[in-house]
Structure of Zinc finger CGNR domain-containing protein:
Amino acid sequence: MHAVREHAAGAIERARHGERPADDDLAALNDAQRAAPAITELTWDGSAVTASRRRTGPAGARLAARLAEAAADLLADPSVTRIRQCEADDCVLLFLPGHPRRRWCSAARCGNRVRVARHYQRHKPA
């Protein structure tokens, strides 16, 4: 999981800046998905055929494969270049802004703390 997370972060960081992701990052994400292949399993529920997606393999490999698949979906999405990093000093989260002027991952969390700190600096006794 840690390796998949690091490779996903590296690939996303480069892609969001319009750069080519490193070959080893893409290869690692592909390998993680291959380790626990996903199948669409068909079942009869008594009145209709239902389809559900499931992965085979050990639990750790399935989890890593799901993370790698989510990263692959994000990397293949044209909006990957719009991803931003939160502007709060102590936040490491990335987000896809719904508005071009959005600066924080969460207005309620990071945005509020930045505004409170700014207010405190303006009204701090000299």
In short: Helices lie at 2-16, 23-35, 59-76, 107-123. The longest strand covers residues 38-44.
